Amino acid sequence: PYNLFAIEGRNWANYSVDYGFSWKNLYLFGEAAKDIRGNIAIEQGLLASIHPKIDFSFVYRNISPAYRAIHSNAFTENAEAQNENGIYAGISFRPKPGWRMDAYIDIYKFPWVSYSTDMPSAGQNQLIQLFWKPHKKLETYIRFQKESKSLNGFGLSTNMNELVSVNRSGFRLQSAFQPYPGFIIRNRIDLNWFEKSG
Fold it and tell me: What is the reported pTM?
């Protein structure tokens, strides 16, 4: 089933229309694409400066399970632009000079089987990060990231795979100091948690 919509034959074609439009502190962008079989992929987004210290971003994507493109580069959870619907929202807040807080959430679903799931599945990613740069020679950030999605797991009640929930969380503290031009000292602490139900 995973290869049901695979490209076949010696010829393939994709057609697309994209746009970008600015108005005051708002930038709208997007693309609609169609493959030779008539399957459609759509991505729409906006970037907005809603305050001198706050930026907001939003991306909507709806890519048919049957859509295929040989050379695609889209904002997706999948490595390729196919079989995905999702919404991403992010915010960046600069309370005072040298400080920035970034956060986002990305909620997605795969309406058809994928490489790691034998049935439709869903997931989400979340991140919050605090960045501090008091001067040009020092910068530090602290980050917490969480991802949860479904993957194949062996079914205990049947001989077929069943979807199980996989949760990953990560904490990072990183700093970089440049005492002299061309010489940088970096430190990083990474803590990661992994949980797979069943």
Answer: 0.87
First to last CA, the chain: 25
**Count of beta carbons in the 10 Å neighbourhood of residue 35:** 22
**Residues 154 and 185 sit within 8 Å (Cβ to Cβ):** no
| Confidence at residue 18, expressed as pLDDT on a 0 to 100 scale | 96
Q: How far is CA 42 from CA 37, 68, 89, in A?
A: 16, 13, 17
Write down the mean pLDDT value for the chain: 92
CB 110 within 8 A of CB 119: no
Tell me if 67 sits within 8 A of 81, measured CB to CB: yes
pLDDT tens track for 157-171: 566 678 888 999 999
